[in-house]
Amino acid sequence: MKNIQISERLFFALLKYHLLEADEVLPEIKKGLEEKLEAMVRRELYTKYKTAPTEEEREKARQEYLEKVGMHRDFRW
Which residues contact 22 (CB under 8 A, 6 or more apart)? Predict the structure, then answer.
């Protein structure tokens, strides 16, 4: 199991929600967790691109990564 780092802001929002039962921080928690998940997916695609065993798999992972980060097709090589 890997460790995952989150921002201090998200950590305190999670504390407020769970320990103080402050429901007003739910949108902030949701946004922070969605951003973290997107970053994890991008990192996984980048790692797959760099470590793929074949050229075809490497190119497929590279294209998926570029799609995920939002790079326009005209700027790709």
Answer: 16
- Continuous segment of H or E residues that includes residue 36: helix 26-51
Q: What pTM did the predictor assign?
A: 0.74
Confirm whether 36 is domain-assigned.
yes
15 domain-assigned = yes
Query: Cα–Cα distances in Å, from 67 out to 20, 41, 62, 77?
Result: 40, 12, 9, 13
Alpha-carbon span 39 to 26, nearest angstrom: 20
Given a cut of 70, the residues of the chain with pLDDT beneath it are 74-77
Tokens linked to 44? 């996984």
